[in-house]
């Protein structure tokens, strides 16, 4: 058995991260072997590192971390539709095999809860030299997107949310003009990017001052950045005008209840933040209910994504590179050699998106 390097944790054990030897996965007849070039880091990785969740694959006592990925095909057979040297991004979730949604390929809507996720739940991730995968879960990346494709997995989350905004709103004749994104982290900024591709006037609200790099990224997308530190969320429509679409991506649950009070008539609020805490707080429930009812408003949550949302992301990245060249690249503020993973895990997070550079190809 061949051996490779991988970054692993022991699920549920705080600070158990290490770089170790792991079996180099052998390619079976029906799958593809991929050499990992880089992975992106996010709050999910930090939570798994902190022992809050994460699950090892059956038979292993460790989990290879990493779900935001980019690699190059190393070995494949003739039937995969891919060739050696093709760039790929892998999707993350795999079906449970028993619920109706998973059986129809909609594993992001798994209803049994027994799905698996690479680098998160019951399947090894991508912080390793190699992985193998069935070609149906690999997204082919054009070489021109090589430097930004590691952003595709977080973008898929946003693509699903926005896809479902339009699907839900088929309930009425609806021509949205203006959108607000709450939160200027990677997900918030990627949401702003996709909304700009859809032709919406877009605002991004963040805590950071308007001199911050996040504001420059928003400006680069011809979106307006609002520095809202200390401002009431309910004051935002006074600055933006009526809001047809609001996307919440701050990671702070109290913001959600403010966001329910700022929608235009027939407006829709998409919730993308995962908030693992146990916080309890008073909210103006009469007012919130009244606003939602009288406004015919919709509030919905959205998690994970389907392979088609990754493919839509590739299409949108190509449009973005044409309309706003170089802006996506600005989201990646730090590229660490992967041996230096300790500079990110357990440290205060700075910048927008950090990647671990695993191989140059
Ligand atoms: Zn992530
Ligand atoms: Zn399922």
Account of the 3D structure:
Helix 3 crosses helix 4 and helix 3 crosses helix 9. This protein is 25% helix and 27% strand. The radius of gyration is 21 Å and the shape is globular. It is of the alpha/beta class. The mean pLDDT is 96. It folds into two domains: 172 residues, Quinone Oxidoreductase, Chain A, domain 1, CATH 3.90.180.10; 146 residues, Rossmann fold (3-Layer(aba) Sandwich). The strands form four sheets. Strands 3, 5, 6, 10, 11, 18 and 19 form a seven-stranded mixed sheet that branches. Strands 14-13-12-15-16-17 form a six-stranded parallel sheet, sandwiched between helices. The protein starts with a strand and ends with a strand. It binds zinc ion (2 copies). One zinc ion binds next to loops.
Instruction: Say what oligomer this is.
Output: single chain
Helix/strand-derived category reads alpha/beta
In the CATH scheme, what's the topology name of the largest domain? Quinone Oxidoreductase, Chain A, domain 1
CATH architectural designation of the largest domain:
Alpha-Beta Complex
Total strands: 19
Task: Domain count, please report it.
Answer: 2
Please specify the SSE layout and strand pairing:
Elements (H helix, E strand, L loop, with lengths): L2 E7 L8 E6 L8 E9 L2 H7 L13 E2 L3 E8 L11 E4 L2 E2 L5 H4 L12 E3 L3 E2 L6 E4 L4 E4 L10 H17 L9 E5 L3 H12 L3 E6 L6 H8 L3 E4 L8 H5 L2 E6 L4 H7 L3 E9 L13 H10 L3 E4 L5 H17 L3 H4 L1 E6 L15 E5 L4
Parallel strand pairs: 8-9, 12-13, 12-15, 13-14, 15-16, 16-17, 18-19
Antiparallel strand pairs: 1-2, 1-4, 3-5, 3-10, 3-19, 5-6, 6-11, 7-8
Bound molecules: zinc ion (2 copies).
The site of one zinc ion has 5 residues, from loops.
């Amino acid at each position: 058995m061949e051996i490779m390097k991988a970054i692993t944790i022991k699920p549920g054990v705080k600070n158990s991260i290490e770089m170790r030897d792991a079996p180099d996965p052998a390619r079976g007849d029906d799958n593809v072997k991929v050499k990992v070039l880089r992975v992106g880091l996010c709050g999910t990785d930090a939570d798994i590192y902190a022992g809050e969740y994460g699950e090892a694959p059956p038979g292993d006592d460790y989990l290879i971390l990493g779900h935001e990925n980019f690699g190059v095909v190393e070995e494949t057979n003739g039937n995969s539709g891919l060739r050696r040297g093709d760039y790929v991004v892998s999707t993350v979730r795999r079906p449970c095999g028993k619920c109706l949604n998973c059986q129809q390929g909609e594993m992001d809507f798994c209803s049994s809860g027994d799905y698996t996720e690479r680098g998160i739940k019951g399947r090894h991730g991508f912080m390793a030299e190699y992985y193998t995968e069935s070609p149906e879960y690999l997204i082919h990346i054009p070489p021109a997107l090589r430097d930004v494709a590691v952003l595709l997995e977080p973008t898929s989350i946003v693509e699903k949310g926005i896809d479902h905004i339009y699907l839900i709103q088929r309930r009425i004749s609806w021509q949205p003009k203006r959108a607000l994104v709450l939160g200027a982290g990677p997900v918030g900024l990627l949401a702003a990017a996709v909304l700009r591709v859809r032709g919406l006037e877009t605002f991004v609200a963040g805590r950071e001052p308007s001199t911050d790099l996040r504001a420059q990224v928003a400006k680069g997308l011809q979106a307006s950045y609002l520095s809202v530190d200390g401002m009431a969320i309910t004051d935002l429509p006074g600055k933006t005008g009526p809001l047809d679409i609001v996307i919440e991506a701050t990671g702070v649950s109290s913001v959600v209840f403010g966001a329910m009070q700022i929608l235009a008539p027939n407006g829709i609020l998409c919730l993308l933040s995962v908030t693992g805490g146990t916080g309890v707080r008073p909210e103006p429930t009469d007012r919130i209910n009244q606003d939602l009812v009288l406004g015919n408003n919709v509030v919905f949550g959205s998690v994970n994504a389907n392979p088609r949302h990754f493919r839509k992301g590739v299409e949108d990245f190509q449009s973005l590179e044409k309309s706003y060249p170089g802006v996506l690249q600005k989201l990646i503020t730090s590229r660490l050699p992967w041996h230096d993973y300790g500079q990110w895990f357990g440290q205060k997070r700075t910048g927008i998106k950090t990647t671990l550079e695993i191989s140059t190809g």
